[in-house]
Amino acid sequence: MGNEVEWRIKAGDGSSEILVPERFGIGRIRHWIVRLGLKLLIFPKKAWELGVNDPRKFIHAIKVAIALTLVSLFYYVKPLYDGVGGNAMWAVMTVVVVFQYTAGDTISKTINRICATSIAGFLAIGVHWVANRAGDHVEPIIEGVSLFLLASAATFSRFIPTIKARFDYGAVIFILTYSLVSISGYRVDELWDMAMQRIFTIIIGTSFCIITSITVCPIWAGQELHVSITSNMDKLANSLDGLVAQYFIDQTSSVIDHESDKTLLGYKCVLSSKAAEDSMANAARWEPAHGRFRFRHPWKQYLKVGASMRSCASCLDALVGCVNLESKDNSDMKEQISGVCLRMSSNCASVIRELAKMSQNMTKSLSVDILVGKMNNTAQELQEVLKSNPINNNNDANPTKAQSSPQLVLMETFQLLTLASLLLEIAARVEDIAKDVQQLADLAHFLPEISVKALKQEKDLEGPCSQN
Amino acid sequence: MGNEVEWRIKAGDGSSEILVPERFGIGRIRHWIVRLGLKLLIFPKKAWELGVNDPRKFIHAIKVAIALTLVSLFYYVKPLYDGVGGNAMWAVMTVVVVFQYTAGDTISKTINRICATSIAGFLAIGVHWVANRAGDHVEPIIEGVSLFLLASAATFSRFIPTIKARFDYGAVIFILTYSLVSISGYRVDELWDMAMQRIFTIIIGTSFCIITSITVCPIWAGQELHVSITSNMDKLANSLDGLVAQYFIDQTSSVIDHESDKTLLGYKCVLSSKAAEDSMANAARWEPAHGRFRFRHPWKQYLKVGASMRSCASCLDALVGCVNLESKDNSDMKEQISGVCLRMSSNCASVIRELAKMSQNMTKSLSVDILVGKMNNTAQELQEVLKSNPINNNNDANPTKAQSSPQLVLMETFQLLTLASLLLEIAARVEDIAKDVQQLADLAHFLPEISVKALKQEKDLEGPCSQN
What we know:
Chain A is an all-alpha fold. Chain A is built from 18 helices and two strands.
């Protein structure tokens, strides 16, 4: 900095002002280049890690490339080949645009593309025919007005939630196809041929997509949703268990490391899972029967389970805020209610884990009701303990406790009571999750546990679908 | 039901089974038709309401139609016109695909489309040139391998969060253009002409989009994000105020109606706002200076504010669960701490409202620090009240209270203590929001309140941008 020239402006009143280097000066540019270089160095490493952590991302990239190369070769080799202006283009374009990460999304886009192209094409040909008959002066007006009206209607329809969720892409393709046909200016019989060819090409393109998507390491949105809900349940249970144990059992907090910290904060994943779950459920409804899932599996119910889990996680978030979990004080009350609180949290966690097992195996569980009952009994017990003991005890104990001031003990008491209240509320919300999962079990016809055990003894589990 | 024929199967053991109507029987079809009819009847009404509630949705639909009709007419009238296979198609396609609801999204797609088309086009022409030189046998291999590698790399890059957020569409267009050019089979000089024309057409299409998007009732993602954050703050403040008042002041709970219920549950909007905020912030960073926002306004900071608000809302959610807000019991303790709790909640709400005002007007506020100080003082006071009074008092009062059982009073006490704890935690989280908003004020160079007042006296407020 020392050998840099400094520019000063002297004002009339004698004060001077240092001119700072201009915003896009050499120093700034150098700074930007260094930053860009660093980013470019880190970037490939990060990308590689992303793929190594979930190799299915690599596989998806290769699948897209396979479908694209196949469809290109198909048109390159075929005598049908007629350059980039022709049909090959539409097949390639279809593959690029339609191929998605999950099979459900690919199928959804495929169906949207084929239906929207067909409907818009035939509608445009019809309007074209009418406009042709109406005479040369009226023709552009009819074409223009119909394009305007249909484009605005289709664009507006994309704001309607049900359309947005299922037919958003279809609406875009509808506008695209309609406007392409209506400005084409071809004669109707030419148009008809072109439309047929176009639809045929799109079908070829989408077939390549769907076949590659479903046969080569398929990624089913339904399966993903199922796994995500189950693993979120485990995360929730581990967080709950861990956080309460950390407060009551000193030992755990002393050996806290990065790994266990990650476990404790698992509930945060649950809190932010809504968008991903919604999009997976949307894709899943397009998927055919796969693995243990039927067509029309109750995917919506998974969203309900997810919502209940988020509501439970948000209680846990409040708990982390309200209770100083690192506190090492051991008031009498803490000792008195630690047992029942720990049992409470581990009971809640057991219920969640049993629900996770239940949805993972897709079996009805005999023990869920028992575990919920146990949880509710512990909740009752906690209430009783709170009612009978602590407050009186604490007041008696305060004067005799030498190691902590009465103030500290009181704060500790508030924290304990808050923790207890939140635990009771968490138990209530866990019961909601249990209800939602039971409803899922009914809707998806989960097998009773006993018959599964019987089945397992006879042969390998084939899943509930084989029973319907 | 009475005159329906019932089918029974008699089994060998004498038991009989009623045959239920088959799954896709006439009854079921009739049921589906009625349901579909009902949906079709309700649908236009719902769609209309959607538009009436936010007329900008209608306006957007009309804007898209205008851009599309204009670009169609442009090519229909122009001598350039050469049918659907030619360039007109690319302009139309660009308008349909690029035009988005917010200006930011439109600009982002435009830049993505132009850059990706150019890069992929030139790269493909280069590879094509090399492949041409390499001889007829090697040419398809070079083309195929390069397509395979680039397509998989570009597809994989779409999983990388930074690319996903900013260049997702660009990656798709890159693959599309590269594969179209590489299978085109034209000579390099032909390709060069074609590429130039194509890029020129896309620039025409995107110009129509951007002009329509920015000039006709523009919808700025940044403005939307700004408004959404501000209105969420107000919702949070109203919920907080209302919920605590409902618990302590009986009067409000008796006049509860649908409208006030909506106000009380406003915090739920805050809880589920993440996805929308993320996408608006992503779009906003592409927008030029508009209204009171500079280019490179600190949109990321809005996301931080949003996250703090969600953390506060999740405490409020726990409060709604833990505390029976409809409770009409009036224990001594409730009376004793109602004053300070009500002040606590209204102080928190005042801070949030001041922050909302501050971000809405984009001015630094002198009173935020004072209000936060007041809130913290009340928090201190609440802690003092809790420490000194209630528990002792309650134990003394219990035997003499005739109207409620000691058990009930105790439950009430727990609820009160939980409420107090949660209020204290909410205050802490409100302080986090305040810190984030103050940071926003620094980053976005909000004007000091005083200079705003002075400015207002002189002339209408022109916003902070005019000061830079």
